[in-house]
Design a protein that fits this description.
46% of the residues lie in helices and 15% in strands. The protein has 8 helices and 9 strands. Keywords: Oxidoreductase.
């Protein structure tokens, strides 16, 4: 990019994993990049060239302050989020609400604040970083699946609203990724739960799949491709043999696909 065409990007959750990889990739491509963290001063390995802003997606004041500090943003990558698992009947209501505030409502609010500027400049990109679990739901991951499906729903509906103004919207659904997220996942299952044995079986398979998953840089490359496409497609999937499994999803009954997903996780 030349100085005349330099774009500004805001990448949420850029302190590690996919967010850090996306931020680094955009810096290399000449973007001015803001990355967010709940505690910017505590980021262990800051990405060179990235300016970090504080952002708590559960706090309206924090979201407004972050949008104001970033200023004119051309590219928004809604990546920050929480991974959660547990039997549905044992998920505390406050935990589910926190998950949706973080994964959905915060991302939507930040998008609302930045869209007017994109429309006015007749250019913008909004990328929702979802999960292939939104397309292939898995037992004991209901809250997480639902939050990622909600993000995709917002993106798909928003796409037509803003496309006449030069704003492109896409969802990127990664499959299994080796980012260490299993260590940060919040879990809710009682010690005396009737689901405990099956839940642990699912979790072991899930963690094993993620340990063998694609690196964050591969997901970042897909996100950059979505950002720079003219226009971006509604959905990009990467990892977990995405081309094959999405083809199977079109060919076979949904009930069979759900059984296949369960079996892949030992259920």
């Amino acid at each position: 990019m030349t100085d005349q065409t330099t774009r500004t990007a805001l990448v949420t959750g850029a302190s590690s994993g996919i967010g850090a990889a996306v931020a680094a990739a955009l810096v290399r491509r000449g973007y001015r990049v803001y990355g967010t963290s709940r505690a910017p001063e505590a980021v262990a390995e800051p990405v060179p060239g990235v300016e970090y802003l504080a952002l708590d997606l559960t706090d309206e004041t924090s979201i407004v302050a972050c949008a104001k500090a970033a200023g004119a943003v051309d590219v928004l990558v809604n990546n920050a989020g929480e991974s959660q698992s547990g039997p549905l009947e044992e998920l505390p209501p406050e935990a589910v609400e926190r998950l949706f505030r973080t994964n959905v409502f915060g991302a939507v609010r930040l998008t609302q604040l930045l869209l007017p500027g994109m429309r006015a400049r007749r250019y913008g990109r909004v990328v929702m970083v979802g999960s292939m679990l939104a397309s292939f739901p898995l037992a004991y991951r209901s809250s997480y699946v639902a939050s990622k499906a909600a993000m995709k729903g917002f993106a798909d509906a928003l796409r037509r609203e803003v496309s006449p103004y030069g704003v492109g919207v896409a969802t990127v659904e990664p499959g299994s990724i080796n980012t260490g997220i299993s260590e940060r996942r919040t879990e809710y299952v009682r010690t005396d739960s009737p689901f405990a044995a099956e839940y642990r079986t699912m979790l072991a398979a899930l963690n094993a799949n993620q340990d063998k998953g694609i690196p964050a840089d591969t997901v970042a490359a897909t996100i950059v491709r979505a950002i720079e496409a003219r226009p971006p497609r509604p959905l990009y999937a990467v990892g977990s043999n995405a081309p094959v499994v999405f083809a199977l999803r079109r060919l076979f009954p949904r009930s069979l696909i759900l059984r296949m997903v369960a079996r892949r996780h030992g259920l």
